[in-house]
Design a protein that fits this description.
This protein is of the alpha+beta class and 162 residues long. 31% of the residues lie in helices and 32% in strands. The chain has a single domain, classed as Aminopeptidase, CATH 3.40.630. It is built from 5 helices and 7 strands, in the order E-H-H-E-E-H-E-H-E-H-E-E. Strands 1-2-3-4-5-7-6 form a 7-stranded mixed beta sheet, sandwiched between helices.
Length: 162
């Protein structure tokens, strides 16, 4: 049974490994940089009760200037009280077991009443059709896009109202 809990410092090595398995769907990070992003976020960790993480989701609050993300700034400029998904990643060996869905359900529940919506971006280029289908299945809708490097690096912005 999957349970969702908060981040513990002993999780970092596992979360770093999981993060790196998710590249290019998430950005590659050094362990120290990932620790910094986690420290700025609300981090949900999935496990099966034994403490070994299956996956994680980080949400960065609007106005977090220490987080230098053009995607977060895009949501802030759009307006509204949107909690931004910095990353969601699931261990390769745990994929297909609804870990990502469990992480999002916990995030929706925790954020309801505090934020209007949860926002994220999914790569259009390089394409990430599995992530786009997954997010749309969970009720996310497209609210914009950005071409950082046209024809090479493009994202679709999605939101799920709470």
């Amino acid at each position: 049974m999957i349970r969702i809990r908060g981040f513990q410092p002993a999780d970092l090595a596992h979360l770093h490994m999981i993060n790196q398995q998710g590249v290019p769907g998430v950005s590659s990070e050094a362990p120290e940089t990932l620790a910094k992003w986690i420290s700025l976020s609300e981090c949900f960790v999935a496990d099966e009760g034994g403490g070994v993480p299956l996956g994680f989701l980080t949400l960065v609050p609007p106005g977090t200037m220490a987080y230098p993300s053009s995607n977060l700034r895009w949501f802030e400029a759009r307006g509204g009280n949107v909690h931004y998904v910095d990353r969601i990643a699931v261990a390769e060996w745990a994929r297909g077991r609804r870990v990502g869905e469990a992480l999002y359900e916990a995030a929706f529940k925790a954020c309801r009443g505090r934020y209007d919506a949860i926002g994220c971006e999914v790569n259009r280029l390089p394409p990430n059709p599995g992530s786009l289908r997954f997010h749309k299945r969970l009720g996310f809708v497209e609210v914009g896009s950005n071409a950082f490097v046209p024809g090479e690096k493009e994202v679709i912005y999605l939101e799920r109202e709470l």
